[in-house]
Amino acid sequence: TSGVPPQLLALLALEDEPVLGYTAPTPLTQLHLHLQRCSLDYRPPPLPLRVLVTAETLSVTCGSGPEPRPGALRLLVDDGSVFLSERCGGGALDLQRDFVSVLDVDFLELVLSTWRGGDG
C-alpha cells in the first residue's frame, strides 16, 4: 500500500524457524556511528535561523538488551561548535562573517541510561 514492492517486504519479513534443542539468545540491539570532520546545517522551519553544528569527531553508541540489562545512549563530541546565523538565503555564507559562535567545546560526553526499577 505504501508503494514498496512486495518482494522487498517479503525479504525484510524474516522469521526464525524453531530448532529442536536450541534456545535462541535474547535479541540485542546496538547502533554505532562514528564521524570525523563533520557538520550539520539545520534550519528550523518556524524560526528565521540557520544553525551550523561542527565536530572534529562525533561518536554515537546506543544499545538495548535483555530485560535485566539497562539501555544506554552515549554521545561523544571532540572539538565541537554550534554557530547561528540570521541569513537563511540560498547563497553561500562565510563562517566567520555570517555566523556567531554560541557554543565551543573541546570534549563532551553525554551518557543516558534507562533501567527498570525493582519492587524492592
UniProtKB/TrEMBL annotation:
Catalyzed reaction equations: a 1,2-diacyl-sn-glycero-3-phospho-L-serine(in) = a 1,2-diacyl-sn-glycero-3-phospho-L-serine(out); a 1,2-diacyl-sn-glycero-3-phosphoethanolamine(in) = a 1,2-diacyl-sn-glycero-3-phosphoethanolamine(out)
Keyword field contains Transcription: no
Keyword Lipoprotein tagged: no
Topology of the protein relative to the lipid bilayer: Peripheral membrane protein
GO BP term, example: autophagosome assembly
Gene Ontology CC: one annotated term: phagophore
UniProt family annotation: Belongs to the ATG2 family.
PANTHER family the record matches: AUTOPHAGY-RELATED 2, ISOFORM A (PTHR13190)
This protein's name: Autophagy-related protein 2
Organism: Cettia cetti
